[in-house]
Write a structure and sequence with these properties.
about 375 residues; alpha+beta; Helix Hairpins; Chaperone, DNAj Protein, Chain A; HSP40/DNAj peptide-binding domain; three-stranded mixed β-sheet; 9 helices; 17 strands; elongated; disordered C terminus
């Protein structure tokens, strides 16, 4: 009795070649001995492999559709169609990773890597921008061979092992026919050529490490962690390939007066209680100049004054400066801890004039109760 090859693969009799291949590929992934060592799975793998071998062949499939069995009595049951093949080889056959040849040699000339250097900047330098001379240690073009890698008067030669193809091919037979797999040549490492007499200076790499000085321009408004890209100033690639980029990363140092929040600055000003009561105009040094800070009479603790445009430059992603941030001035009022006799007398006189002597100012939180009731509530 003819076997049900379609049922073995789980496809309809009118399934297309692509549907048959897709069904087998799914089953092969599940049942191949490299994945599933169970004996039952191995037997099942042989069955689905035999079914695919039949249904993928138009002539054999025609015999099946006419009610016959192209493998005859047990044909194919005693042979493992994938003897000597790993699961990777099977998947390569389906996905094209080696069928019919490789991709050819790769170039010796490869792009270089990017490089990174960090510089410390003060807040003043972040405000104005700086131009720095930086010493960097990177791979540069070998001036002896100019990136070619061969000693003077010599040149690279075609690799004898791979005949310049950059890969070694091997052929194995399977139910699909001949499966050609390609691997990089171990002698030339996929390049297709070798350098019999390498450059004495770079050892055939086409580049050497060297210390050099470059000029880096850091724009105004940079912040901690920002990077400035210097195109083509990174590592030269193997074989004298184009250099990568150099990134200059900003490490911003803390400031004694100002705290930064984006382009805005914050600072704290402490004034005596008499200044807060009477008001004053005080000089305040910003990052750029000295401005007048106007304090109204009766200035209260925790008052915040805004000086528009006295912050840092706003640096856009394009590198363009667009306006400046603001300066937020937080006012703290200092209460004297010790008073001499005369100061005490004057304050008592002032309290008497204002009717505040021995007076407790009521403080409510919207729910009633004075200062002491709020204190008791906190300690419950």
């Amino acid at each position: 009795m003819a076997r049900d090859y379609y049922g073995t693969l789980g496809v309809r009799q009118d399934a297309t070649s692509e549907e048959i291949k897709r069904a087998y590929r799914k089953l092969a992934r599940e049942l191949h001995p490299d994945v599933n060592p169970d004996e039952t799975a191995q037997e099942r793998f042989r069955e689905v492999t035999a079914a695919y071998e039949v249904l993928s062949d138009p002539q054999k499939r025609k015999i099946v559709d006419m009610g016959g069995d192209p493998l005859g009595n047990g044909g194919g049951g005693g042979r493992d169609p994938f003897a000597g093949f790993g699961l990777g080889d099977i998947m390569d056959a389906f996905f094209g990773g080696g069928m019919g040849g490789g991709r050819g040699p790769r170039s010796r000339v490869q792009p270089g890597s990017d490089a990174l250097i960090r510089i410390e900047l003060s807040l003043e330098e972040c405000n104005t921008g700086v131009t720095r001379e930086l010493t960097v240690d990177t791979a540069v073009l070998c001036d002896a061979c100019r990136g070619g890698g061969a000693a003077d008067g010599t040149s690279a030669q075609v690799c004898d092992t791979c005949a310049g193809r950059g890969e070694i091919q091997s052929v194995q037979r399977s139910f699909l026919g001949q499966v050609v797999t390609a691997r990089p040549c171990p002698v030339c490492r996929g390049v297709g050529e070798v350098i019999p007499d390498p450059c004495r200076q770079c050892g055939g790499d086409g580049r050497v490490r060297a210390r050099r000085t470059i000029t880096a321009k850091v724009p105004p408004g940079v912040a901690d962690g920002m990077r400035v890209r210097l195109s083509g100033q990174g590592e030269v690639g193997p074989g004298g390939g184009p250099a990568g980029d150099l990134y200059v990363e900003v490490v911003e140092q803390p400031h004694a007066t100002f705290e930064r929040n984006g382009a805005d600055l914050h600072c704290t000003v402490r004034i005596p209680m008499t200044t807060a009561a009477l008001g004053a105009v005080l000089p305040l040094e910003t990052l750029d100049d000295t401005v007048e800070l106007e304090l109204d009479p009766g200035t209260q603790p925790n008052t915040e004054l805004l000086l528009t445009g006295h912050g840092l430059p706003r640096l856009r992603s394009s590198g363009r400066v667009d306006g400046r941030g603001d300066l937020h001035v937080h006012v703290e009022i200092e209460i004297p801890g010790k008073l001499d006799a005369r100061q005490t007398e004057l304050l008592r006189e002032l309290a008497s004039i204002r009717g505040e002597e021995d007076q407790i100012v009521a403080a409510t939180n919207g729910r009633g109760g004075g200062l002491f009731s709020r204190l008791r509530a906190r300690h419950r």
